[in-house]
Amino acid sequence: MCGIAGILLASNAADPKSLDQIGQMMMALRHRGPDGEGLWTDREAGIALGHRRLAIVDLSETGQQPMLSTSGRYAITFNGEIYNFRDLRLELEGVGHHFRGTSDTEVMLCAIESWGLEAALQRFAGMFAFALWDLKTRTLHLARDRLGKKPLYIASARHALVFASELKAISRFSGYSPEIDVDAATAMLSKGWVPDQSCIWRGVFKLPPGSVLTLTAATVAEGRGAASLSQGASRWWSLAEVAKNGREHQIAGSDDDLTNELDDLLRLAVRERMIADVPLGGFLSGGVDSSTVAALMQAQSPNPVRTFTIAFAESGFDEAPYAAEVARHLGTDHTELHLSAAAARDVIPELPTVWDEPFADESQIPTLLVARLARQHVTVALSGDGGDECFAGYGRHFMADRLKRYQGLPASARRTVAAGAGMLSRAARHDFIGNLPLPSHVRHALRSDRLTRFAWLLAAKDEDELHRRLTGSSAENLTRHETPASIVSAPRLDGLLSRLLYDDMSGYLAGDILVKLDRASMANSLEARCPLLDHRAVEFAWRLPAAMKVRNGRGKWILRNVLRRYLPQRLIDRPKQGFDVPIAAWLRGPLRSWATDILSDVRNQGEGLLDSTKVDACWRDHVAGQDRSRDLWSVLMFQAWCNEAKRQASASNSSRELDLAGV
Fold first, then answer.
1. Is 16 inside any structural domain?
2. Which member of 2, 110, 199, 618 is catalytic?
3. Which of 548, 571, 594 is the last residue before a domain boundary?
4. Which of 47, 210, 266, 292 would be 146's cystine partner, CB 3.0–4.6 Å?
5. Statement to judge: residues 85 and 232 lie in one domain
6. Strand ranges (DSSP E) for 11-70?
7. What residues bind ATP, as annotated (predicted)?
8. Would the annotation count 383 as a binding residue?
9. Residue 111 domain-assigned?
10. Catalytic residue at 642?
11. In which domain, by residue range, is 589 found?
12. For residues 148 and 143, what is the distance between their CA atoms, to the nearest angstrom?
């Protein structure tokens, strides 16, 4: 795991000294690779590659990058891991190839030389973003892994194209002038994160997952913008095709047969991700996903594996007791960190610099802190991320299954049921249910907004409208701009559940979950690996019948079935909680002063992006007891990011000015 950056000058560039800025770009990525720096430049060709190293496999000098292939034709700077590199190496050695060291990077170069770039990519099992320079043809290839686990930003600058693992490196290049993209900012304020298809800065784009972009100096000289360059990327792996083919060719088999196959796949994925020349552990929340990963780690380790979790003081948010029980049963070497509101407050000033696009998933706080805890003991940590998106773990997935039985009813009948549910919900909220002998969980469900939401969903006229209602943002638009429509085109799949899963995997997973994990871990120089997102497991999941995912009103049925082989039922069957934090209470209490200061900055912006009148009303509602924390956290994180961006711009020695017009 590392940080990479590079510069490719246009064929008509006047000053090759621009390549010298690669050193400054790499300084901005030191946290991603504290174990060393490498630079490689070909001034005549107008190319510079940089690499910051977090040494994981082959800690010797033979693992250093940028690395040249044996023939000298290719130079590579690579961020990530190829987990099946040992198998690929054996295959290459079998046909006469020899290796100097033991790194996966050397195997990658040999595979590319032997099989060609796209054929090699198809064989790689891993997470990666890399730049490959062909010295023979003077061609640059930029590639990203199948699901976008590793980031790669690309910017069209003056007389150059620059790329890096993070935006903060691109901002060090003097030929690029940052200017905010209002559509991306508006989308962030609605979702809490910038979609992977967008970037907070104009003129910058993220290389799409599963794609390759091929460029020459002549291409750069054309002066094409970010949108045009992004469209030039070619797909070597397509989630849309995998989803469509999987639903059209579903696996037939008994519950036991399919569970056995998934167990074997995940064992392999975990085993490959336990290959490291440095200490290794895992995140453990006590939920199904992280418990499955921890169980498969311990089942394949002769020694207790290290596991780490976050504990909260507030009741209803603390999963630490569940994690501790799982750890005791599995026999892991377990460590807890107790998170207080004071600890959260202390870390908040770091958030805009860790996520150098504005980011407002409040679980970023415990994710950052559990990564910091783990890094005190290990250099690699396995995570349970991806289980919800692959195997249907979110409430909307269960709701889709429950509503399916009503879709066959006539519209008039659905409206009648919806009206009845709405009346019952209103009666419960006004306490008209009185002392009826109802179980406490039923009484709680009636008094919550779940029944109201169910009635609203049930009234949808068809599956398309139901899909829109399930996926629409519940956030209030607190800006002066309309939220941009999604630009992601989805394949036509075999039902509502498949459509929801595709939305989550192509959108939420790429734009939120993987961004959160990458930035939080790499800010602490920790490599995080996600075995549940192994591409073989993802492709298998898309071929599973829906009943293997959602059954009897519960999600992740097959994953639970795997976990039952390692844990007793009592440690598996509990309500899904997620990595939530008590942000609503904190904003009314220990974070109130900080929030008030940030919101005053919103008001001082005048006619900016945010509508200060709506924001103030939202804040008053929250302080009065209504939970508006999701809306407010997006506003607070966005404004904090703007403040930090302005601070960095004013502190820079560059004469460039940061363009935050309209914000």
1. yes
2. 2
3. 571
4. 210
5. yes
6. 37-42, 47-53, 67-68
7. 310, 383-384
8. yes
9. yes
10. no
11. 583-658
12. 10
